[in-house]
Amino acid sequence: xxSDGRGLHGKLLARLGPEITSGAYPPGTVLRTDELExxxxxxxxxxxxxxxxxxxxxxxxxxxRVGVTVRPTEEWHVFDPQVIRWRLAGSDRPRQLRSLTVLRxxxxxxxxxxxxxxxxxxxxxxxxxxxxxxxxxSRGQQLDAYLVHDVAFHHVILRASGNEMFAKLGDVVAEVxxxxxxxxxMFTDPxxxxxTLHVRVAEAVRARDAERAERLTRxxxxxxxxxxxxxxx
Length: 233
What we know:
Elements: H1 3-21, E1 30-31, H2 33-40, H3 44-56, E2 60-63, E3 67-70, H4 81-88, H5 93-118, H6 121-136, H7 143-160, H8 164-168, H9 170-182, H10 192-206, H11 210-231
Helix pairs in contact: 1-3, 2-3, 4-9, 5-7, 5-9, 5-10, 5-11, 6-7, 6-10, 7-9, 10-11
């Protein structure tokens, strides 16, 4: 397919994906290819390419003589970063943020404890660099710059745990943090206590203090949930 075709099916995905994940097309809804062509003014090839991507996410399934059917929510690939992005953009954002923050609460403290035992000296240096970057960008409404360091910090924690399953959740955590920033489910400046906790986690990992690293990271996730109670009730 040409680059123009990829662009067209990407635009179709950007419209259709959020509509499915927001519930505009409830599970069981049948989407007819010809109707999609007409509605979005695209070719059948473009529709098929978009549907193929949606099928890979388990959002829909295609059947001959039936059409494209929206699958039950419990069958969706909910860890897919694009699915997370679409769901965070919809009306169900508060519940989705809570669900993802509970996941973080279960995983990240354990990952931090493991990182304190297993992190390389390079990873310890990365953690410190990004924690200090968070401090430097935590004032003056620099949320986009802050996000870069915040995402990198949590990626390092998950990778440094030595657990490949945890490491694969890095993109999930990144989408949570990016979604909070994009949809302004954050204070105009990050909570100073939370920023300080990230610095202390970096120190605990460098000191090989697994118990402290785990406890401090749990405080970060508890604080994140408390912010949601205020900003996304």
